[in-house]
Structures are given as structure tokens and as C-alpha cells.
Amino acid sequence: MDVDSDQANEEGRAILEQKRVNEEYKVWKKNSIYLYDTVISHALEWPTLTCQWFPDVEHIPGKGYSTHRLLLGTHTSDLDQNYVQIASVNLPNMPDKVDVGRYNDETGESGGYGGPGSGEARIQIIQKIDHEGEVNKARYMPQNPNMIATLGSRGDVLVFDRTMHSNTPTGVCNPQIRLVGHTAEGWGLSWSPLRQGLLLTAAEDVRLWDINAVESANGARLDQSIVFQSHTSGVNDVQWHPLQPTWFGSVSDDTCLNIHDTRSDDRNKPTHTTRAHDAPVNCLAFNPINQYVVATGSSDSTLALWDLRHLKTRIHTLEGHTGDVQSINWHPKEETILASAATDRRLLLWDLSKIGEEQTEDDKEDGPPELFFLHGGHTDLIHDFSWNLHQPWTLASAAQDNIVQIFQPAHNIIGEEPSADEAELE
């Protein structure tokens, strides 16, 4: 075997692939003015594997923008200290013509928005909290967004009260609560939206924690958890049902979607289960409006839609990605809108009300009728993304190459007229 020849061929393929990615990015950049009302690209110091909009927004009188916050992490590969990070983001109240070509050397941002009094597009890290190892997933508690739970590479689940930490790191990781039980790296984390203090985490198994049991949340340790062992391989994601307080779902490398009811006595037997895909299942999301609909995303490059009342038969398969589907999230207010992100560097928006519509031959080349928007601004795989709750068509996405992008598709694409931030109208 000619090792040098194989290495040269591999390097040649990598160069060609990078050239293709760069060409695709140039095409996206050229067309972005027609595709977006807002688009901002910001370079972080290190990649983040996690991304979530906070639920709050600040309106500044006399300004054309409002200030939002993002929850981020770091993935330094142990080359530097890791952090839980909180970023402030200025977003236009009335999106106008984007300028993707504009680049700010000082902030590492490109893109932005125009219009009178809109101010400068800006993403700024405003708080760093020391963390042990990479932050695989970080989520705030819905009932108290100052409480942030993280799951990382070392198994323990850490809970921070961000108000008890300075904005600049001290060099010492000091969580308010340490949840001890997992023995492997974990990726699944979900706070109950209906019952304060209940937290689900997933690694080699699923564990349910009640942080209300902690008397003094200042360096406390919690070992007690309820363990669910219904999968035969690692668990990649776990999610509480948004409308049913005792239901949750989990997905695994064993290709299964399992539904549990916490009232059941048998924690190792799910209430419902189905083989969801022919490859590992990486993520799931319950519809926030229709309590019976759940979506799953897989390494087979597809998404599947399920009815919880008839879990043995999938409703529909969404095909459009060419890489492992890493993250899926429903639109917070539109029942039929679903978004997905994958290792193919694409974030896709789906409108399930379009399933089955007739297409011309030209339209078929762009994908199925339910695929209505493709965000192609990333040049590396996308780890996580989040819908903004105050500007419901604005999303934030985080990629492997340190880039966080914030974008809103053009109003003529999503079928809505541009409008002010909802809170501005109240």
C-alpha cells in the first residue's frame, strides 16, 4: 500500500471539497440580499455546540433596534478554559435591506441591516462563567431564566445561577448545584416547561432531577435522580412534552423513539416506542401547539413526523438534507413550521401544510413542496439553532467554524409583511 499516495489523494479531495464550499458560499452571499430581511454573521473566539435565545428583550427608546440575549458555550478542545457565555444581540425592530458584504474587523461581524435609526448590528459577549470541559448543551430554566443547566464531556450536570457570578470569569468553575450520576458524556438536556425545577438529562441513560430538593443552592451536590433505562445504546436527546406535564420523549443510537410517562412504575419500559429510523436518531421535538405531533431527526439525513396516538406508523418523511440531522425545532407560534439543521451545513425550514402539493418539474429540482427555505450561509456543520420568541421568524445558528449567524428570511418568502417587534405593539 502506498501510504504517501493515499495521503496525497485525501489531501486533494479535501482541497476540492473546500473549494466547492467556498464557491457555494459566494453564490449564497451574492443572492442573500433577495433572501433575507436580516442576516448577521459573527465570529466567536471558540466554537459553541449550543445556542438558545433567552426569553427577554429590551427596547431602547428612540432606537430602531431592540436588545436580545443568547445563551452560548465554548468547545476549546482543552486548549483553553471553557465557559458558559451570554451574548447581547441588537436586532432591528423593522427589518430593512441587508448588507451581507459589510465586514467589521473589530467585532468580527459581517452583514447587518439598514434603515433610519436602526443602529449597528452587533453581537457582544457580556458574561462568561467558568465551566469544566466543553459545554455540549446549555439551557435556561423557563420559570427562572437566570438558572442555567449544562451538560458536558465529563458526565456531571452543572446548574448555575448567573446572577451569582461576575461578568468576567474567575478561573474557577463554581456551579450552584452539581448533579452527579451520569458516567458518560451527555448531549440531551431539557427543563420542564410546566413544573419548575424538574430537569431531564441524557447520556448513557436518562435521568430526572428535582433541584427543588436542594436546600442551599451554593456549591450543593445532588446525587438522587430517577433513572430511565429503556434504550439499548447511548441516548442522544431527551425532551419534555410542552403540554403534558408527565410525558417526555428520548431518542438514541439504537434507532428508537421512546415515550415515557413519569407516573409509570416501570422506568425501563417506555409507554410507547417505535423504530424511528434505520440509523441513529439524534434529536426530537414535540409540536408546541398540536400535542400529538412529534418530529425526529436522524443520521440517515431525514426527518420523520409521528402521531403519538399511532406511533407504529410515521406520518411523513422529510427529505432535503445530505448529512446527519443534528437539531430540530418547531416554530414557537406557527403549528406547521419546522426547522432542521445538519452536518451538511444547511438549516432548512419546512411548511408541513404544503405536503402533497403538486409541483412543476422545475420546482421538483429544488426539493419537496414542504421545503420552502434553505439557509446556506454556513461553511461548516451546524451544531445547534434557536427561534427567537419576540421576533418569531428570526433564528440564530451556531457552526463548527466559530460562526454564529442570525437571520430572518425575507417577508415575501415567509408570506408576512415586515412588522415591528411584537412587544413594541403591545
TrEMBL record:
<protein>
    <submittedName>
        <fullName>Putative chromatin assembly factor 1 subunit C</fullName>
    </submittedName>
</protein>
<feature type="domain" description="Histone-binding protein RBBP4-like N-terminal">
    <location>
        <begin position="23"/>
        <end position="93"/>
    </location>
</feature>
<dbReference type="Pfam" id="PF12265">
    <property type="entry name" value="CAF1C_H4-bd"/>
</dbReference>
<dbReference type="InterPro" id="IPR015943">
    <property type="entry name" value="WD40/YVTN_repeat-like_dom_sf"/>
</dbReference>
<dbReference type="InterPro" id="IPR050459">
    <property type="entry name" value="WD_repeat_RBAP46/RBAP48/MSI1"/>
</dbReference>
<dbReference type="InterPro" id="IPR022052">
    <property type="entry name" value="Histone-bd_RBBP4-like_N"/>
</dbReference>
<keyword id="KW-0156">Chromatin regulator</keyword>
<dbReference type="InterPro" id="IPR019775">
    <property type="entry name" value="WD40_repeat_CS"/>
</dbReference>
<dbReference type="InterPro" id="IPR001680">
    <property type="entry name" value="WD40_rpt"/>
</dbReference>
<dbReference type="InterPro" id="IPR036322">
    <property type="entry name" value="WD40_repeat_dom_sf"/>
</dbReference>
<keyword id="KW-0853">WD repeat</keyword>
<dbReference type="GO" id="GO:0005634">
    <property type="term" value="C:nucleus"/>
</dbReference>
<feature type="repeat" description="WD">
    <location>
        <begin position="274"/>
        <end position="309"/>
    </location>
</feature>
<dbReference type="Pfam" id="PF00400">
    <property type="entry name" value="WD40"/>
</dbReference>
<keyword id="KW-0539">Nucleus</keyword>
<keyword id="KW-0677">Repeat</keyword>
<dbReference type="GO" id="GO:0006325">
    <property type="term" value="P:chromatin organization"/>
</dbReference>
<feature type="repeat" description="WD">
    <location>
        <begin position="318"/>
        <end position="360"/>
    </location>
</feature>
